[in-house]
Amino acid sequence: MAGLRQKLSDRGPFAALLVAGCAVLSLLVLAPLYTLLSKSVENRAGEFVGLENFARYLSSGGIESAFLNSLWVAGLSTVIVVGLAFMAAWALTRTRLPLTGWVRGVLVLPILAPSLLPAISLVYLFGNQGVLKGWLFGAEIYGPIGIVMGSCFWTFPHALMILLTAMDNADGRHYEAASALKASAWRTFWTVTVPGARYGLVSAAFVVFTLVITDFGVPKVIGGQFDVLATDIYKQVIGQQRFEMGAVVSVLLLLPAMLAFFADRYVQRKQSASFTARSVPYKARADRKRDVLGALVLTPTVVFILAIIAMAVYASFVTFWPYNLDLSLNNYQFGRMDGGGWGAYFNSLQLALGTMVLGTVLVFFNAWLMERTPQPKILTGVFQFLSLLPLAVPGLVLGLSYIFFFNHPDNLLNGIYGTLLILILCTVSHFYAVSHLTAVTALKQLDKEFEAVGESLKASRWRVLFTVTLPLCLPAILDVALYLFVNAMTTVSAVVFLYGPNSQLASVAVLSMDEAGDIAPAAAMAILITVTCAGAKLIQGALRFWVDRSTRAWRQGTE
Amino acid sequence: MTQQTQGSRLEIHGVHKNFGDFSALRDINLTIEPGELVCFLGPSGCGKTTLLRIIAGLEQQSAGQLLQGNDDISLKPPKDRDFGIVFQSYALFPNMTVTANIAYGLHSVGTPKARIRERVAELLEMIGLAEHARKYPAQLSGGQQQRVALARALAPSPGLLLLDEPLSALDAKVRHHLRSEIRSLQKQLGVTTIMVTHDQEEALAMADRVVVMNNGVIEQVGTPLEIYQQPQSAFVAEFIGAMNFIDSAPLNGQRVMVGNRAVDVVRPLPEGKGGVRLAIRPEDVHLLPSGDGDWEGRVEAMDYLGAFIRTQVRLTDVALDLVVDVDPRSARQLELAVGNRICLHLPSDALHCFAA
After folding, report:
1. Residue-wise pLDDT tens digits, A92-126
2. Is B110 exposed, middle or buried (0-12, 13-18, 19+ CB in 10 A)?
3. What is the pLDDT of chain B when averaged over all its residues?
4. Greater model confidence, A242 or B29
5. Which of A67, A525, B59, B119 is the most buried (most CB within 10 A)?
6. Which residue ranges does UniProt annotate as crossing the membrane (chain A) (predicted)?
């Protein structure tokens, strides 16, 4: 039996396009990372020196201080955040408290703020001239306490959203079975609720740990003399211009992030859907005591989040803390401070819009190629790996890699260095993985035979894409667009190495103003960023509402 | 009413399909005549869906040739082939109305607007959903969605209609109704049709010819009656309807030994020296009052299945249980009850013979 040499003639172009997609991601993630890795084993002159740089860093005591500090601060924050988020998710899904919609809204607010905001707010609350300084019993907010508190604030929504997803879809039958078997509420909690959420818990823990250990904003503002890996990279590169040492610390930061990434992938693979078509959604029964308990566990978190935001808002309007508490708009006159002023804000807006448009198009197009066109298995595997890789690469590491890669005189793309374009490319890559996962999930939910039916009706895959696939994916597209916009607006870590004189950014301006001691204008800029993100969220919410309404007939089957 | 489409003839020559080391189809040869309805029938994993997808061009055969009419379509992508397809899930475009779904394929080939309107109206009339033209798929029942999928596939008047388990997502009642509806529609249009199913009843009721498949090969091709009455292998005999199997050893000529008793058979014995598996359908076994027949037995269990009683009888001489279908009237005459003794007669012309 002779095998057929020729292939069905329509497969080639799609594979070629996905190869192009792989090439783009390799250029934007893999190649810069490789340059970074090779930089970490070279000396200043560019000669190969093996692990000498690592040895130098080790002997300078960097491992003991920064590395271990990073680990325990991230570990502690993870325990606190996952604990609080689990309690909050429990209260929101297993009790019949009123106003849970609003409470959910408040609890995810931090996602709209740059991570610098809680740090600044904490300075106002517990700093040397803080209103609640006495509450720390003489302890310093500048250091691990501040970092942990600030990290908890901005990572909380990430953990909460994962846990809510895990716990929203509970099977009511399990609870009915438990109560039919006379299990107490406490035993039901430990034998039904907790096991049902275990994958969510593991995933949330990995996510929070990675976010904290790779975050740069909080420790930069409130870390004081307390070294962590993220600030160490910044110091080595910006402070001392020792790029090869920056690369060494980056590799050290890459290790725990990669480890968390692969561990999470491994655990997720074991997860199977426990909520099947035959499950009955859980509905909490009226239970006064449980409602009170729910309110009790929610209150501290809600108060903490509101207090941090309120403090930053208030501080941004106070004329001169703490001597002149009159409210004014003085701090919003950014032209008078360092950091790029209003120009930086508009640059950020352009960055966010550019990232949103380019990123959404790139992510969806590639995900469509991967999921909905005929592709060799190997190619989809490679592409999936490249798409998820950014999840394991801390922003600072990515930013530093970009310097090494794009600033190299031999690089043909050298010209984009210092422009807004490189910031857009870097931000798209930085947030590629989560967007990719959202797009793939949406595309997987569509009937797998749409394209086959289309071809039998002589419609090209392109026509099916534009007339069927895209309209059906519109909600997911809006979600990805908002995700990219908000993150581009608030991110500091990757872009802090990459902005040029003409492309200063709002989030970086917060940092520079804080560094220059202009902490109130820094708060004002952070609030401005938050309000902009909230505005984007409102617009996206309105669009989704409109999409839902105009497509209700075909989504739900009722007019 | 509707225009008569000329169904095309399809020839499949020596098709193989491998997925890595696994061989999903081996040496498939089959000719389907114009206007015929052929069912691919077999257990899951037998390769029937793979064969359908190869005919559609959705999978590529590892070797072999496909001819539609005089046209070699072996290497053509689906959009250059001439077929309509209905999937188990229907894959209706949920964001389009019934009308837009049916018109989709007509737009592709640039049919004039007025002609599209005409054709859609015609098809809606044909499937009896004219008043639902502006609804979305989610607003229709499963059976209605199925008909829309059928209309969409038929709209460009393809020469070949492929149906991939088209009825298995439906309730039993709707399924029975749609069976005859699809069949009469297909006859009326004369479109050559291939239907994949794992439901033997469906295949026997609808098909002109049934292709029974197992483990990637065709076991038998024949009319429903041939398949049922003259199964060519033990697999087909067992897969289609119910069958009792009795092990025996060849004796001489047309005689075999069951236990220590010689049995005459009419059908040709399998070649070779090995044992012979006799087979007889439950409705072909005759029950007689105790003492009247050639085999003695005892009634072990009786299940009332409406029109007949499925009775399990344990033979006295050989360690063997036979399943026998008895109509209720005969059962009353025989005073059939669990524990009673009974005699059986196995008509020699009803005994099938297979190689053991």
Report:
1. 988 888 888 889 989 999 999 999 999 999 998 98
2. exposed
3. 90
4. B29
5. A525
6. 12-34, 71-93, 105-126, 141-167, 188-213, 245-263, 292-323, 343-369, 381-404, 416-443, 464-486, 519-539
How far apart are alpha carbons B134 and B137 in whole angstroms? 10
- Distance from the B153 Cα atom to the nearest Cα atom in chain A, whole angstroms: 7
Q: Do A457 and B95 touch (CB under 8 A)?
A: no
Q: Which CATH number fits domain A61-95+109-227+285-328: 1.10.3720.10, 3.30.70.660, 1.20.120.680, 3.90.1150.30?
A: 1.10.3720.10
Task: Flag whether residue B138 sits within 8 Å of chain A, measured between CB atoms.
Answer: yes
Mutation pick from B136, B140, B191 vs chain A, by most beta carbons of A within 10 Å, is: B136
Query: What's the CATH code, domain A13-51+336-559?
Result: 1.10.3720.10
> Which CATH fold topology does B242-355 show?
OB fold (Dihydrolipoamide Acetyltransferase, E2P) (2.40.50)
Let me know: does A253 contact A233? Beta carbons within 8 Å: yes
Say yes or no for a CB contact (<8 Å) between B85 and A2. Answer: no
Nearest CA in chain A to B63: A3
Domain definitions of chain A by residue range: 13-51+336-559, 61-95+109-227+285-328
**Could you read off the pLDDT of A426-461 as tens digits, one per residue?**
999 999 999 998 999 899 888 888 999 999 999 888
> Does residue A398 have a pLDDT over 80?
yes
Asked whether the beta carbons of B355 and B276 are under 8 A apart, the reply is yes
Most confident of A102-106, A330-334, A493-497, B12-16: B12-16
Structural tokens at position B209: 């010819």
Contact yes or no for A452 and B78 at CB 8 A: yes
Count CB neighbours of A46 within 10 A: 10
Q: Give residue A548's pLDDT band: very low, low, confident or very high (50, 70, 90).
A: confident
Interface confidence, given as ipTM, is 0.81
Beta-bridge partners for B32 = B10
Distance of CA A451 to the CA centre of its chain: 33
